[in-house]
Design a protein that fits this description.
By secondary structure, this protein is of the alpha/beta class. It is about 35% helix and about 25% strand. The strands form two sheets. The chain has a six-stranded mixed sheet. It has a two-stranded antiparallel ribbon with strand order 5-6.
Length: about 190
Amino acid sequence: QINENIDIQTHNKIVEKCKKLNITPYVFYMGCYNILLSKFSNNEDICVGMPISGRSSKFLSTIGMFVNTVVLRTKTDGNKTINELMQEIRENSISAIENQAYPFGELVKKLNKQSTNRNPLFDVMFAYQNEAIPVVIFGDKEVESIPVKLGGVKCELNFNIVPTRDNVVISAEYSTDLYKEEAIKKFIEA
């Protein structure tokens, strides 16, 4: 896992630009991620897994973590403007969320994807944590959030954006069998 930070002033400028473009910061960062994936892979057809809340109204009183993963497909055609690409990602995200109840197994079957030991629809994921991390105080000390290194990744590359009070943390979890640390650092810094 590699972590980098964006200063809060830069993030605030991004948020203001997003308001003018009628997009969310999630769409902006997802757009950047898609552009980078396209450039680094030399592919204009990008499929990214995105986790979304899987807690429907019938599970509101149930304890547990409910997360669905949907696929966002973006074509990063070089003829599109950045604004056109961002609007496409916005529309695709809304559509993916609206169709999240469609059973994943049925989608795989309908697309005629072979079952393998990897995800049949995407190799990379993107998450934007827009929920504020609560301030926790023990006695007179405020708890500090520290990124935890995980033991393994479920996809080739998991990219996470977490805005905090002081900055925006970008973390990338990746398969060390496929990527070298230097390549991931170059990707994040781009």
